[in-house]
Structures are given as structure tokens and as C-alpha cells.
Amino acid sequence: MLTPHFHLKNKKMKAVFIIFNQAITNKVEKALELAQIKGFSKWNEMVGAGSNEGEPHLGTHVWPSLNSGIFTVLEDEKVKTLLNLIEQINNRTRQLQMWIQVTRRIADEQGF
After folding, report:
1. What phi and psi values does residue 39 have, to the nearest 5 degrees?
2. Is the CB of residue 13 less than 8 Å from the CB of residue 7?
3. Number of domains in the chain
4. What order do you get walking across the sheet with 67-75 strand by strand?
5. Residue 37, C-beta contacts closer than 8 angstroms, at least 6 positions apart
6. pLDDT recorded at residue 60
7. What is the pLDDT of residues 40-70, one digit of tens each?
8. Beta bridge partners of residue 19, listed in sequence order
9. Which residue(s) pair with 36 in the sheet?
10. Taking all residues of the chain, what is their mean pLDDT, rounded to a whole number?
């Protein structure tokens, strides 16, 4: 996530750009709602690769998943709230991904 600084009417503002797997769109949109963020721009189908642990999201036969992205400019007070909510989503998603990987490994070992 990028968070450059802006100033608007003597208010310190930050830009936040969130890129996420389309599968968790509803969770990210819920985080915006909980943080009371109404203004944002959204890209529904983004491709890319970039994390050391993740897989590319290219919308191809080999790498079929896609990302979405949300860009918003917020008052400093709201940034921490939003980033905490996004971090909670990341933690739950990582736990789910680890559980899925363990389940797949067990299924492979059992011949399923």
C-alpha cells in the first residue's frame, strides 16, 4: 500500500492504494464501510505479480486469478483505522490459505 502525503484546507491527507485478490472484494469494501470511507476509485480487474510468497494474478490459463485495486485519499485519522482493518483481513486470509495448503497436502498424502 502506498501512502503519500497531501494537504487540503490545512488538513493533512494521505493517499492509500490497496491491491487485493478479487476473492476478498467484499471484505475490503466492508473495511471501507467500517472506516466510514465513502470516496474512492476502484479497478475491478488488475493483473500483476509482486509478493515473495504469493502467486501471480494474471487472468491466464496458468495463473487464472485476478486482483482489484482501490485508491482513496483520507484524513490522517482515518488511515490508521483502515490499515488496521486491512491487516486483520490479511491475517485471516493468510490463516485460511495455510489451512487450505495443509488440507491439500493431507489429501495428496491420502491419495485424494
Report:
1. -100, 120
2. yes
3. 1
4. 5-8, 11-21, 67-75, 41-46
5. 72, 74, 78, 82
6. 92
7. 999 999 998 876 777 888 889 998 989 999 9
8. 69
9. none
10. 82
How many CB atoms neighbour CB 69 within 10 A? 17
Q: Label residue 31 exposed, middle or buried (CB < 10 Å: 0-12, 13-18, 19+).
A: buried
The per-residue b/e assignment along 71-96, b for 16 or more CB within 10 angstroms, e otherwise, is ebbbeeebbeebbebbeebeeeeeee
- Paired with 73 in beta bridges are 15
pLDDT for residue 111: 65
Contacts (Cβ under 8 Å, ≥6 apart) of 4 = 14, 15
What domain range includes position 61? 5-110
Q: What's the CATH number where 86 sits?
A: 3.30.70.120
Does residue 2 carry a pLDDT above 60? no
- For residues 36 and 63, give the distance between their C-alpha atoms in angstroms, rounded to a whole number: 34
Q: Above pLDDT 90, what percent of the chain? A: 40
